[in-house]
Structures
1.
Amino acid sequence: MAATPLTLDEFDHRLLDLMQRDASRTLTSLGDAVGLSPSAVQRRITRYRRHGLLREVAVLDPNALPATTLATVWVAMERDTLRLHTAFRARMRAATEVQQCYALAGEWDYLVILVASSVAHYREVAERLFVDEGNVRRYETRLVFDTVKLGLNLPTRQSPRRRRKA
Amino acid sequence: MAATPLTLDEFDHRLLDLMQRDASRTLTSLGDAVGLSPSAVQRRITRYRRHGLLREVAVLDPNALPATTLATVWVAMERDTLRLHTAFRARMRAATEVQQCYALAGEWDYLVILVASSVAHYREVAERLFVDEGNVRRYETRLVFDTVKLGLNLPTRQSPRRRRKA
DNA sequence: TATGAAATTCCCTAAAC
DNA sequence: GTTTAGGGAATTTCATA
């Protein structure tokens, strides 16, 4: 999916940066910020969407929601079979409680970030996701007691922006 | 911030669920989905925003972006001083390379998810965030080589939805 | 092949009920 | 909560460099 190159110019970088912070801005406001007409902005955004580069979502503040239990889990698989990994990944993608899942290099195969409505609910989910299927050799849970920062902003440039001072 | 209770009814739960998946839907479309008029939907969304519960952001597909290096870092602090923790958290929130930061229970104090444009860039960032300040006792990095799932969807209900079968 | 300006349509927003 | 009406934004069309 989304194997298209899609060349980005400076306008694109600035637009994507702005939209990752706030996707509710109007085309006019975005255009003013980058020096483009609303039409031009809209055409570019349409292109991002068509290429599967961009989607818009609502982000909720976990602290405004009562009884939200977050947990981080590192997972080591039993064997390195492609089949087992594929099944595991499908399970992660399908589970609504899984917020994020990353394949890692090193001692642990995966990092999973889970959300549940209580610790009891978390145990239930962990049992279902990591024990019942039998592919998991070992997993370790660390409960989150505070979310310090929450976002998904990605840099769109190849190199970090130059700073005045190193 | 956002210490308001804010009672949610079934309409709210369904709306928040839909918007976490796709925030670009129109009020009419959302209203049709939950059985409410566009105006009613709009009033509710306005309320979410006023309470700081909801914001809208654009999410980019990391696989559509070349040269995106993701890394997970667990961090143990030198001492348990409130002052040191506060400073650390402020640094995490300020750094654009930090996608997420969670305070953990157990052996490690924090889990940080970082994004950089290259491994070299990552090293530079890690040096700046975890070494230069001197509050960090130990940190361990695991590079991400594949993003299996990426989202921030939170359940808004106290209990998980009942299933037909346990 | 990109742009910006104008016209149209549609949606958001705020009334009144 | 819904229906209504008005203003504003998104989208299309068009002329242009």
Note: The mean pLDDT of chain B is 91.
2.
Amino acid sequence: MAFAGIVTYSFRMPASRPNDDERALRPQSDSPPALCTACEARHRGVCGALDGEQLAELARASHLQVIEEGAELIGDAERVESYSNVLSGVVKLTKTLPDGRQQIVGLQFAPDFLGRPFREESTIGASAATTVSLCSFPKSTVERMMREQPQLENRLLRQALDELDDAREWMVTLGRKTAAEKIASFLLMIARNIAPRAAGAGETASFDLPLTRSDIADFLGLTIETVSRQLTKLRIDGIIRIENNRRITIENVVRLAGRAGD
Amino acid sequence: MAFAGIVTYSFRMPASRPNDDERALRPQSDSPPALCTACEARHRGVCGALDGEQLAELARASHLQVIEEGAELIGDAERVESYSNVLSGVVKLTKTLPDGRQQIVGLQFAPDFLGRPFREESTIGASAATTVSLCSFPKSTVERMMREQPQLENRLLRQALDELDDAREWMVTLGRKTAAEKIASFLLMIARNIAPRAAGAGETASFDLPLTRSDIADFLGLTIETVSRQLTKLRIDGIIRIENNRRITIENVVRLAGRAGD
DNA sequence: AAACGCCATTGATTCAAGTCAACGCGGCGT
DNA sequence: ACGCCGCGTTGACTTGAATCAATGGCGTTT
């Protein structure tokens, strides 16, 4: 695996002095480790399926990683030895044709679970769209817990079904929407994931795009030129404001939704 | 639900005389019901997760349905009261935009499981691409068994992950392949599902397309004219033979694969 | 501060696939 | 036998997005 740009903090690593994190992960009776209590994955993610003792055990085997923008997490057709929870940032899942054409087939936000159970090597690549922090576990530990705790498998099933719904939603976008509709749909999807409050109710929403123009093109099956042109069109029509390349403000969520084709 | 064109054989239905099927489903000790023993779903499908007693119980609650080509199984945003195994035929999963544009987001072959656990109403439509036979169960029975038998949830997870892999594979096709590559990929996928032997090893493979030109277009994000033209091109190039509208012979599987873009 | 690289935008032109239209073929009802 | 209808094919033309090419910020290096 290309570990370029990946900083790893192992909680099992012998530290010069026991730091706060280290202590936070030690199991006390069967209450959850302090670090996990504050973790999104503990509540909305797969760790919610575990009891205090299991959580402590998993936490002991886990380590945090901070991955910088652009770094590859999993190569295509690579043997994968660990699973992770996304704690922050955005991970892009990609597929590449032999001649280099690329398609982003999914985006993962906190607290999504990253990994493909029941398959030795992955059929997709994963890389950090933004700086990403992960809580990673050895494959074997997670797989043993899946057998011991059916609730965990239930969570994974729920996430897999949600991802399947998402993937099928994007199949419609890829297959049947125009470039303009694709861009509108994309902005709405990002807004809903990054700034859910604003995107749901409010008229305006402001956020940083987690993807470059090139990534957006690879996600929507377009070229960067078309992405750029459609964004300027939305800007000229007063639907979005482009603060700078990355920062976008949706001036009118309802009008944007009207251009998404559904 | 639109039951037009759906013939239902209930195994709980009081028959004028106990027929073979009826007797086959009665539980004897804990050996599997005779009907299930011969069923593909018993071996490769989700029923493989159940023991003899559970299988007998599920079989008692099940009923067979034969659905004719074109009939709708599940409407979009419809409340779904049952799950099914596909025993034969092909089910198409569709999504439709408000203005009528349609995208087929998946195809299900025997012995796939049909249904979306953990969600009250479906977000996709399902209809019979060919004549389809289903083994259907009440939602509640399956959901209880999922709780009692984690193996069942494991099977569903595996199928969901496989479907997710398929969906992502098609996202690449929809987003990044040319019309010619889309058609080649489609023919290969169908061949692998319908005539796996021939498609894998042999040089030629022969099968009936389970979809109309219009369905193929909706699956690949193309128009029927483009589908027709690309098929003609493959025929002129001697890669396929079009026996009649439905029946296709792949003259050279390797050459076809060479045109699929991957 | 000049030079470079990277990312994004904008304009001019091309082309793959869509649209519109005509026609062919086979099954079905009258 | 006839006309009709649904499905598929083929041809002529149009168009939306890709391609090719030039230019503009902006941060980093020298």
Note: Residues 178-179, 222-223, 225-226, 229, 245 of chain A lie near DNA strand D (CB under 10 Å from a C1').
